[in-house]
## 1
Amino acid sequence: MRLSACAAVVLAIGFAAEARAQEAVPQNDLLNATLWMQDSVEYKATVLGLFALARIRLDEGLADPAWTALPEMQGEKFGDRPPAIIVDLDETVLDNNRYQASLVTRRTDFSSKEWTKYVNDKVTDAVIGAVDFAKYADAKGVKVFYVSNRTKEEEPATAENMAALGFPMGGNVDTILARGERPDWKSAKESRMKVVADGYRVLLVMGDNLADFTDKASGTRAERNAVLEADMAHWGKDWIMFPNPEYGSWESSAFGGDYKKSADERRKMKIEALKAWEPKS
Ligand SMILES: [Mg+2]
């Protein structure tokens, strides 16, 4: 009798464990991208390669007074201006994967209010290789401008965080051009890029989002592909794109940029945006 009671307990424990193992884990659109960016050697090696390319391009640009990443903005006689580069912050030189991971583990969505709290915590990491690259540019007399859609309210904590990470911060020049710092500095970045282009020869633009390079990023997928084609001579030369599978205008273009749509509606539209193979039988 005692033996069979024991067997029943063991069986019950076994069934419970099996039930737990079979418990469905809810899908999360951010999981794979965050795991890849936070944890994979593949991401790190990709980014290190991009910063190595950027050093080569920076040196080529420095040696050639006719070189500019922004020919349409520079106007005349830009060859005499001091050199600069324009660098986006988040997911280009700043690594917010702990924030993204927290969205996954807490099964919640991005909120701008919570994002500001995260920024003010000053726990943002540097993307691997980013500080060394920025220091390399700075040591060659190239001013590093950070054109970011972090807001002007988030700028002080961002600057403190970045200085602690070792980024060159521009001395007497305000090198973080934050969203809202001037009335015409909205999320579109060209008005801020123009300010840099007016005073400097811009050698490189670096970002993880088409919107870091042009204001034409928020169009349809077809329009965005037309931008890619039109700017083909820039890519890998004076415009360097970093991978960001977590978020960006590539994602929002699939649901018309409408974040008021529910997560399910957005997911449905993203699935519909796919070109899929159809098996014949
Ligand atoms: Mg970014």
## 2
Amino acid sequence: MKRFAALLLLSLSPVALLAAVTGTWLRRVPEEDHRRHDPYLGQTTAIAAGRQLFQHNCTPCHGFDAMGRYGRPSLRSVRIRRATDGDLAWMLQHGDPFKGMPPWSSLPDQQRWQIIAYLRTLPPIGKPMPR
Ligand code: HEC
């Protein structure tokens, strides 16, 4: 009984609730955006720039290892790996302000693509980060 109560409490925790409703933004991405490709994919200089931008703007919530902090989602998840470049670009531009993800429309397009090129170099959850 105690265990049941603990489980119930756990499933009602804000983190669990947040986890249950993350990913719904993907349904809002228009088809045209969904199909876009990152022009900087695999380009060393752009990836290095994206890494710096990521560390400057994103680590407070998503962590240096991009595993997410305090209930914010990991950016190395299966969902993010399956999302298209265009999905991620849309999310970065618009954010999901009601769920705590700020829009990054103040960054130039080029910088948002650089961040995505960097995200694409990250290992899946469970694999070590490169130095
Ligand atoms: C103030 C905290 C905060 C900052 C800073 C932040 N994010 Fe987020 N981010 C969130 C939250 C909260 C969510 C979950 C939103 C949702 O579920 O719709 C999220 C979701 C995301 C998602 C979708 C994740 C998923 O699994 O659905 C991506 C991609 C993302 N953020 C990328 C970034 C990038 C790149 C930056 C830096 C440019 C950044 N975020 C900065 C809080 C933040």
